[in-house]
Amino acid sequence: MRRNLLEINDLKTQEINFLLEEAEAFKEVLARPIKKLPTLRGKTILTLFYEPSTRTRMSFELAAKRMGADVSNIAVSASSIQKGENLKDTVRTLEAMGVDLIIIRHSQAGAPHLVAKTVKASVINAGDGTHEHPTQALLDLYTIKDKKKTFKGLKAAIVGDIAHSRVARSNIWAFTKMDMEVTLIAPPTLLPAEVEKLGLKPIKISYSLEEIIPKLDILYILRLQLERQKKGLFPSLQEYIKLYGVNPEKLRKSKRDLLIMHPGPMNIGVEITESVATSMQSAIEEQVHNGVAIRMALLNYLLGGKNEDPA
């Protein structure tokens, strides 16, 4: 048992496999007419999001409610944070009200670590700056396992703005931890310094999407952060779309069972076309669906609940 999840690399391989197995059981519960378990009855879970979010916050909220927990959401724009209250004071106040677990998203890398050092409650990192997004990596692993049945030897490529993506960092650690081969595909300006040192095994770098596609089992597409275009990190949006946007033409030489993934939200017509996003190869909607099950498994793991079936 552990108290927090701050980075995907904190989890041992055995823990990841356990969470994936637990998620499978919770996914079966979510398919029932009555999607409720009493596992976390009496627990209080709080979401504290300093950045906008729909998928992650809603997924955590649904997961907690499906397990009987009491859930509160802090609207940062309407809280004492706007009066100058710092992060430490905020979380101490919330813990004093009896919160058992805090789920935090923050623009500053390391903020969840600070919270974990400040409170005795459990803490989950729901995304911190460009650092990590560990639960996204868990739901991505679950989706891959569900589709491919194994991880060993799978060839995965992550394409897009690697330098500014917390999802990319978490998935590099997660994919290599589970013995997958990882290639990063991006313009040189969108790759972080010393990127080769990320992960638990050597990763490859490529600047050509079309060259790599035929070899892949998984193509993981990142959202292009359009605000980066103002900084001149690539010549033009049209140039990026031409070289790195995923469309049917680029996929003609791919394997039939290539799995296409995206963490959302998508810029349709930029990094991915609508026809690719809704194709038979796409698992994007399943990623969203699987997010609730894997987060139920994680909440259960951190708060010490038992997977009791009320039936």
Structure explained in plain terms:
The structure is a single chain. The strands form 2 sheets. This protein has a 5-stranded parallel sheet with strand order 7-6-5-8-9, with helices on one face. The protein has 2 domains: 141 residues, Aspartate/ornithine carbamoyltransferase (Rossmann fold), CATH 3.40.50; 154 residues, Rossmann fold. It has 10 helices and 9 strands. The chain is α/β, with parallel strands linked by helices. α2 packs across α10, α3 packs across α4 and α5 crosses α10. The two termini are 26 Å apart. The longest helix is centred in the last third of the chain and has 20 residues.
What is shown here, in short?
With 311 residues, this protein is α/β, with parallel strands linked by helices.
Task: Give structural attributes.
single chain, alpha/beta, Rossmann fold, 2 domains, 4-stranded parallel sheet, 10 helices, globular
